[in-house]
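CORE FACILITY INTAKE
Project code: CF-77B
Contact: R.S. (postdoc)
Sample description: multi-component assembly, two entities in total
Requested service: structural model of the whole complex
Turnaround: standard
Below are the sequence entries exactly as provided by the requester. Do not edit them.
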Amino acid sequence: MSVPGRIAMAFSVVAVVGGIAAFGSAGGSSAATAHRDTHPERIMSGREVFDFKNLGELVATSPVIVQAEVVGIAPGRTIGSVEDGGVDQARDVTLKVTTSFKLYPSIPQTIVMEEWGWDGSGNGYQVENVTWSQVGDKGFYFLEPSDGAGRYQLVNTQGRALDKGGWLELSADPKSAFATSFYWDPLDLVMELKRLTDTKNPPADLPSAQSEPTVVTGDAANAPAPAETEEPIPGDSTADGSEPTPYPSPS
Amino acid sequence: MSPIVRGGPGLRGDLGARSDLPDLRKRTPVKFSLPRIPAVLAAAAALVLTVPMSAQASHDDKGTDPDNRNQAVKGFSLTANGSTAMGYGKAELERSVITTSWGGGDIEVYDGAYGDTKWHGRTDCTNWNALWTSCDIIRVRFNTSYSKSLNQWKSLGCHEFGHTGDLGHRYSSTDTDNNSCMRIEIWPMHYDQHDLNAIAAGT
């Protein structure tokens, strides 16, 4: 091979090796256990327990509501196993609370919120529309205690509104009823949350909290569910899947 | 999910009829043209390899795009409820353009007492294709920590398998007849025609 040919070949090797290295370091399925992505590589979808249609439902169901700033992020607890489908590691997001709308003053000035996360290979994922928190984020957090000791989690993926300087970036699906009914800016939201959480003068328009599902453990978690005679759907559902909702939907 | 296109016409070698670019097809081959080809290919490959890791987070909020319309389903040590959900979800997916079979390599199903996590089920991609445009192995997980009726388990199977067919969530505003299992707050047990059409369009 000629000299220019060798040079070209060398460049090709460097390029391929460089590309592979970059891929592996930032999102590939490297087996290195110490590796953790700095950005989520994928989105995890699913069915949640709660789905709020408006701010009132979210406020009523959330035991803890704070306005806070993210001051730290660190790897958190690890859960799961290969048998369960894999290991997940939380991101511990430290929030410096500036205003507590519920449970004041029992909420400490600094709390840790778990968000997800990394898989067993350190590949990052975000859940639904909840982008990874960054140090310096400011916003409103609708929380509940998590299974992690002394830690909190968003009550659902609709439970965060980041203050973007005059407007709020919701973690809710933009197409959801919650997002389409939400019209507050940061200052207005503070006033609305104070109104909705006023224990001395409870607002008449505050809806009831959504009911929690029954948590089962041990053998009960593995017991076959009882059969039903009725499908658990509203009475106006066509139920059989044959009634076409226009596609694409008009709205 | 909209396909993610990485690299423009230049990477694909499609110069088309653009008048602002030289017509490489008419060029006289130069002496060292052969070594240049792997170099260009390598550079292109390196570019492709380095792009994906920041792109996945910008996915829309729909489901996971399977890499083909023939999906093998395999459950791993499932409980009776998990098996019910898997079997029902597979059967519902079969109603769409996706053909299913039993076996590993496409949809892998797990269940477990994941705790008071506030989710009943989750679906994600654990192994993307080379260009990260669709998913080779999709993972489904069912949470047994929350008590559910038999039909709710079936609805959950329908829901999570809908995500494996690239479906996103439905809301009352777009499912006025309340008959899509892709809803969150109610438990319908089937895909409606909208869902079936969306699977056909998205996979």
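Facility notes:
- The domain at 70-202 of chain B is CATH 3.40.390.10 (Collagenase (Catalytic Domain)).
- Residues 33-50 of chain B form the longest helix (18 residues).
Invoice: internal transfer
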